[in-house]
Amino acid sequence: MRYGRVKIEDQIGEILGAKVVILLVGERPGLGQSESLSCYAVYSPRVATTVEADRTCISNIHQGGTPPVEAAAVIVDLAKRMLEQKASGINMSR
Q1: What is the DSSP letter of 66?
Q2: pLDDT per residue over 15-54, tens digit each?
Q3: Which terminus of the chain faces fewer neighbouring Cβ atoms within 10 Å, N or C?
Q4: Which range of residues forms the domain containing residue 13?
């Protein structure tokens, strides 16, 4: 989705009935690292009830930060834990 916002996860998840929605967002030009990605993940999002604290974020994904291959493994592990715990964001246990 071009020019989308993170909150679009809620609509996508609700429409598709998804248990986990993972969104990769490129950083805005002009910030410190314009080639960086961030991952926003949320468990069972709903437009009316999902709040920002329900999201889990992995940021600084780029060659000089968290390398993309390593980030991919972290994201897969995160999705598995979300499904196991039926939670995301501050509701997840470590």
Answers
A1: B
A2: 999 999 999 998 766 666 668 899 999 999 999 999 999 9
A3: C
A4: 8-91
Residue partners of 38: CB distance under 8 A and separation at least 6: 24, 25, 27, 57, 58, 59, 60, 61
Q: Which residue has the tokens 């930060």?
A: 65
CB contact set of 50 (below 8 Å; sequence gap of 6+): 9, 10, 13, 42
Q: Which of 45, 58, 40, 52 is nearest to 19 (CA)?
A: 45
Residues 71-74: contacts with CB under 8 Å, at least 24 apart: 71/37, 71/39
68's CB contacts (< 8 A; 6+ apart) are: 37, 61, 62
In a domain, 32, yes or no: yes
